[in-house]
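I am sending you the entry underneath: sequence plus fold tokens. Let me know what the token row says about the fold:
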Amino acid sequence: MESLIQRGLWTILVAGLLAVSVAYLGSGKAPPVLARLQEFSLTNQVGQPVGLASLRGRVTVVNVIFSRCPTQCRRLSAQMQRIQARIPSGVRLVTLTADPEHDSPEVLARYGLEYQASPQTWWFLTGRKAEVYRVAVSDLKFAVVESGDPSAKLEDLFIHSADFGILDAEGRLRFIVHGEESDAEERVLRSIKRLKGIL
């Protein structure tokens, strides 16, 4: 029951942040700082250590998936693949795994190949579960919950946000775009342009 209440409160919080993002995306005003990425230590799909300094100086788009998921995560990764093909230079794409105990760098490297992920542009990050979840939940305001049911269908092993977070060059969360919106990819690209000063 407590988990359901927490999930409900988290949904309300994220809905509020989404509403703020939408309002500022269509205005000429500078978007507010919704959250700040704190120092972290994770590993990308080619085995390189990644921390906050690795993202500084670039606009970054972040989402959450897990490689064993056959449904929503595949759609989110296909969206990220299309975004990768359209982003201006100097933008970083980051995908966190909700399943770091399974998703090793080698597993994520194979998964990334399915989506033609360029390791120079699009990083898949894994590491200690507590660290991955701290970054995803505390810093980026994503919902990530392990179902705890070993008999669950693969797509139900982890419940996580279907959102894209867009960070500025200082690692501050400035926009959230819900991946299930019909124009989600265009919103992500507009958010990137706003943060790069193009719009």
Summary: The beta strands are 35-36, 42-43, 49-50, 59-65, 91-97, 122-125, 144-146, 158-160, 163-167, 172-178. The chain has six helices and ten strands.
